[in-house]
Design brief:
eight-stranded parallel barrel; 17% strand; 10 helices; TIM Barrel; alpha/beta
Length: 265
């Protein structure tokens, strides 16, 4: 069975250090953490900072847990790509593989230029950019449209992160993932949902009310089978905080392993 990671979104009430400890306890090999807030003035994410990174490095070394991605770098009309260097450096010092970007711009030529530049800057730190599409976005809100955008960017250091929730809500199918050039793939995120509705009205679900893989009606197994060989897979299963983080993440990890086994991965 391949590597399974845990995203910080699974438990926003705990710090990255505790996320690493829980990941190790439930048998997950990686975490994705936040070193760059989407909105510094209204940040909801526990952050990796210069103040806590030493302890985090010690915990990673002690547990053997790795870092998959660091988040979250907004690509906006005035995106300060050069200003992202400190957050990228923090991620690189943790041994992260990737840096996740989210689109907040709709002007294609500007987005192509900004993404290409961000790919260059991230590459200086040994990080590959994963750009996520979501039905919530005003443009490039499907896998097909994001594929076309990334092809126009033309950088081997920019790929697509595929969150199963966003795939389903944007009308995508596992067959669309299977048809994607593996060179354009960055990572996959797992969860489940109570319906297959194609909608833009799912913010609450996205940030705090997802199901563990296999407990809803998403095509989890088919999605996993459609991923490229060796694909990085992580849990992004934010849920109401009615149970401890360890219990929620442990249950989601158990469910994910059942789905991975069923998919033959």
């Amino acid at each position: 069975m391949g590597t399974l990671g845990v995203h910080q979104m699974c438990a926003l009430e705990i710090q990255p250090l505790e996320l690493v400890r829980i990941a190790a306890e439930v048998g997950c090999q990686e975490v994705s953490v936040v070193s760059q807030p989407l909105d510094p003035a209204n940040n909801i994410f526990p952050l990796v900072t210069a103040d806590n990174i030493a302890a985090l490095k010690q915990e990673l070394a002690a547990t053997g847990v790795g870092v998959a991605n660091i988040e979250a770098f907004p690509i906006a009309p005035a995106a300060p790509v050069e200003a992202y260097r400190p957050a990228l450096e923090l991620g690189a010092s943790l041994g992260a593989r990737g840096a996740t970007a989210l689109l907040f711009d709709t002007e294609e030529s500007r987005v192509v230029e900004t993404l290409a530049r961000f790919g260059e800057v991230a590459g200086e730190y040994g990080l590959r950019v994963g750009i996520e599409f979501m039905a919530l976005s005003p443009r490039w809100n499907t896998l097909e449209s994001m594929r076309d955008l990334v092809v126009k960017v033309g950088s081997s250091n920019v790929g697509i992160g595929i969150d199963l929730l966003h795939l389903v809500r944007s009308g995508g199918r596992p067959a669309d993932v299977l048809a994607l050039d593996p060179a354009l793939f960055a990572y996959a995120q797992l969860c489940d949902g109570a319906n297959l509705d194609v909608t833009t009205d799912y913010v609450e679900e996205a940030v705090g009310n997802r199901l563990a893989p296999g407990e809803g009606c998403f095509p989890v197994v088919d999605f996993l089978r459609a991923l490229p060989a060796g694909a990085a897979v992580e849990l992004e299963v934010p849920q109401p905080v009615t149970r401890p983080a360890l219990e929620r993440i442990g249950h989601a990890a158990h469910c994910a392993r059942e789905q991975l086994a069923a998919a033959g991965r």
